[in-house]
Amino acid sequence: MDEIIHFLGYQIYKRNIKDHATGIASSVWCLQSRDNQRSNRVGFGDTIYKSLEEARGRAEFQSKQEKADNERFALHQKQSEETAAKVAFNRGLTIAERRANAVLDKPHRFPGSEGLGNGSLREAMMMAVRDGRFVTEVMVRDHGAQRKDQEMVDSTSRRGGSFGLPYNHPDIIAMQAARARLQQDVYSRTEYRLSSASNGFYVISKTAYDFAMTMISSPIDDPKVDEAKNGSFLLQANI
To answer: Residue 98, class by beta-carbon neighbours within 10 Å (0-12 exposed, 13-18 middle, 19+ buried)?
Structure first.
């Protein structure tokens, strides 16, 4: 090698190469490959260029490739470590606790205007509690269940009754239960809500509600958390 240049961690060197067809030797620039750079050698696998500028341009490309690969590897390592940590942590949890963690670790669906970040549901609920948002449990009318029971009773009536089915047939038992619920008007369900920035609310899952309640009941030195714990929130409309 007549001349060696070190550029971005790679060796660029000059070498005379003979054309076997013509027998004429010419001077070219060789760029150390990524594999050879790792093992601190040159030769087989290096690429050949007519000019130093071409070799430098390829070295810049290789350097960017190396950086991108290192970043991907670091991210993969981090994700693998996080996954391993979760697996180790989950070994001491019940199935219900594992399911709750899986829900909380998923990305949340609150709009960006709420200022609850772009992370997981767990992180969003933590921010909401620390910001003094109200988390409430309310009883609401279960219109869906009422409509389902009414449709079942109406369908049976349109068909002309039980069609001679025995009284203990599953369809007859279900219809009678639906009719009893309609007569007693027992249609209510629990709904969990998180106050929004615009004085409305979002319906949240029981898992998110339970997690928020855990945060509120924990000894956190933050007056906004105390406000969320002791405040009352009158909700007017679902948004």
So the answer is: middle
